[in-house]
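Minutes, project check-in

Agenda point 3 was the complex the collaborators sent over. CS summarized: two entities, 942 residues total, and the question is how they sit relative to each other. Sequences were read into the notes so everyone works from the same version.
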Amino acid sequence: MTIPPLSPADTTLTTQLRAQLPQAAFRADPAPYNREPRGVWKGHAELVLAPGSTTEVATILAAANAARVPVIPYGGGTSLCGGQIMPDGPTPLVLTLERMNRIRSIDTVGNVATVEAGVVIEDLQNAALDADRLFPLSFGAQGSARVGGVLGTNAGGANVLRYGNARELCLGVEAVLADGRVMNTLTGLRKDNTGYDLRNLMIGSEGTLGVITAATFKLFPRPRSRSVALMVTGSPAQALDLLALARGHAGDGISAFELISGVGLDFLAETMPDTRRLFDPAPDWMVLVDLGLFSDAETVMETIFAEGFEAGLVSDGLISQNEAQAVDFWRLREAIPEANRLVGSISSHDISVPIRALPAFIDEGRAQIAALGPYRLNCFGHLGDGNLHYNVFPPKGHDRADYAGQKLRIMKVIHDLVVAYGGSISAEHGIGRLKAPDLARYGDPVKLEMMRGIKALFDPNGILNPGAVLT
Amino acid sequence: MTIPPLSPADTTLTTQLRAQLPQAAFRADPAPYNREPRGVWKGHAELVLAPGSTTEVATILAAANAARVPVIPYGGGTSLCGGQIMPDGPTPLVLTLERMNRIRSIDTVGNVATVEAGVVIEDLQNAALDADRLFPLSFGAQGSARVGGVLGTNAGGANVLRYGNARELCLGVEAVLADGRVMNTLTGLRKDNTGYDLRNLMIGSEGTLGVITAATFKLFPRPRSRSVALMVTGSPAQALDLLALARGHAGDGISAFELISGVGLDFLAETMPDTRRLFDPAPDWMVLVDLGLFSDAETVMETIFAEGFEAGLVSDGLISQNEAQAVDFWRLREAIPEANRLVGSISSHDISVPIRALPAFIDEGRAQIAALGPYRLNCFGHLGDGNLHYNVFPPKGHDRADYAGQKLRIMKVIHDLVVAYGGSISAEHGIGRLKAPDLARYGDPVKLEMMRGIKALFDPNGILNPGAVLT
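CS then shared the predicted structure for the full assembly.
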């Protein structure tokens, strides 16, 4: 795609917008919006706008489009793929939805939440809980991530196995197009077959086709009984057999089925030595199983454990006896990304492969990485979805900086392997800027052509998040 | 949208395709492809092609596109909205996928089925069952409807409440674009965030953006215990209260929650007098509840019934004691559309409204129809999704033909009311040709503009199913 030339967000635009928007829409300090969690990219935006309404978003986009100024739609700033930072080119305008953070309604008859794009995910979870409902989207950054970003990237997390990703939870969106037109498909209907699915075109487009300003989400009944267990298993293949066994007893009542590697447990011991060791020595592999049922979950979990043990799939384990223990087990799982950060990866990958192929992929990946050098590999995550976080670290005692030059080579080996297995180079984190070249390399060429056509149709001046998704 | 002038499927095109395709790809008799179930539209196609592979589909589309000949993608021919018939304009080519009816694989580890577009839905259900899995899409026409048509219209049915519609069940598609290019997004991955969601753009586009040739679908564990009940309830509002009560005991284990009206039962007695009357006199309202659980479903159903009775929501009922009774209760529900056909509706509507608003909508709709004349109204269906089949019939002893002139007026009253309630004029049947004018009238204008742009991008010559969806 040829992006037409863009102009910087200059004083002319600022002056124009000062006349059109209230003072509250202007953020004083651009610095926080020019940083991202991994410190890979640095932004250079000066003008950060925080509109208070859809109309104000439309005003901003119409002005930016007329002036051909790049716009970076901004949610919670938690992207690990650089979707929120434009590191070069004409100075962009950052459009943060943080002031549009109203939960408009929680409908407990229809089980629908209507929210503005700036609502923080954890706030929505809590509002649902207060109404005795479940909003199941759940992941590490949920305390910062906002609805708009989560829909923009089609975020996943631990409960996708049961409830689906952000896309599957969303019933409708309101979005402002590049030229300021407002597209309203903010229905809370469970069934609506009126025309092309432009809601799902907006979802996952990472702010390159429009800016989502509001959304409706499905809510669910809260399971009445919960049981969480950690089970030591011999291999990823055994873990998959255990998942099949668990499904036979709990069906779609399995809320999460997470793989934890011994390397991850080593990293925990290395970086957070005060963490209690639940198994000693640390097993090579274990799984976290989370059941949420309307019958007695603990009984079902005990059956799964006993049958898994008998079948030789489980050698040791712990079943939560109360909610505090359940939270404890999850804390262990959730501490692993933090331990990863403290160790410092050379290259991190958010990949998926067909579930059946996971064990072979893990074996072959380990061999290929070993052939590259004495790296440490922590591969863990959402086994039930075929989605692994597959991160490569320097040998113990070394620093990631010593291996920075190897990053692209490692990434290519892993992504080549993922594609050879029929997998995806971005399972739940999006493309952002990090993976835009790989999408161009590995993507279906006809799909890419049509994506470029759609981009040109929705954003002819190319002002929306330039450089993200499409290179 | 200005559709460029189209040409008829003439002997030049036929001669060209005879040289490119095997004899088996040519259907001898076009007559079955020019009829549709309600007899509203009549087609005039002469050339009916049944390709045996994606490559052959591509050959046909490339030729038709070059010759600017309209193409009607054809599934099972069961559309009630005329999506499968082009009644006027240049003679179209019918492209039936019926020979591409292979189930390529049933993966019981990943729980994914990979199928060609011509697979009949019931065949896929049975193949899943043989592998001890569930393919949950289920509706009256499942014995004829094919995968391509079901995805083209985003079909729904009775189990959407629990498992979602065709869109939510589909993981990936392969599609041939108007000019013969093949777009391959046929992944069976549970998580894949690589670029814009063109799969969902194809799904629900009713063959106007491309021809789906293959798809991957989610499969589910089969619930181990099932219980079906009919419960007599006082009103739609009470039925919703009962649904909430049932959710508290069975959560997302409720596979279906269907509303049945006394008028539907009267129609059954009138047209199929041999049908056993389960309740006498016929109640004004009842619901069919289908539980599929991994604990004992019958016990849970009894609890729901007992608490519903105690709360005054249920006055009478029957709980299935075995699978044969469960099938029997469903047969009653499924006989109602057949009874409707025998009585003969003046106008039928497939609508949805926000679930919370259903009781008020039903009351107001009844009053508005009564104001139009002494019509009989049978309103029934997927209460848990807010989706009603809302059909208007002549007074007893009269024929629909006497009221044919009232059809558009009735439809307008109902659709106006649906839109006033924030509902949808097409919940699960699609737009086809029947509702294309209403989509243009009621749809979000910005969405419609973008739809026209997408149509022009994917099908610049306008050959794909002209007149469907977009007028």
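Noted in discussion: The two ends of chain B are 8 Å apart (CA to CA).
Follow-up: revisit at the next meeting once the mutant set is ready.
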